[in-house]
Amino acid sequence: MKNISAITFYFASVVCFVFANLLKDNNLSVYYVLLVVGIILFFLGVLKRIKTNR
User: Which regions span the lipid bilayer (predicted)?
Assistant: First the structure.
């Protein structure tokens, strides 16, 4: 986790959001799981960005 850049977390969160929107009609539970994972990855990217700017 230390060597992963903030942009990687942002990109992974965008990928999760895109897959969540694609799977929303087919499987609602997977939609919510991917949505939560995307939000968590986004905030991990924000935290990583804050730590590297200090």
Answer: 7-23, 29-47
Model pTM score? 0.86
Question: How far is it, in rounded angstroms, from Cα 23 to Cα 3?
Answer: 31
1 pLDDT band, cuts 50/70/90, is: low
**Measured torsion, CA atoms of residues 15, 17, 21, 26, in degrees rounded to the nearest 10:** 80
d(CA 43, CA 54): 17
With respect to residue 1, please indicate whether it lies within any of the assigned structural domains: no
Query: What is the span of the domain harbouring residue 14?
Result: 6-53
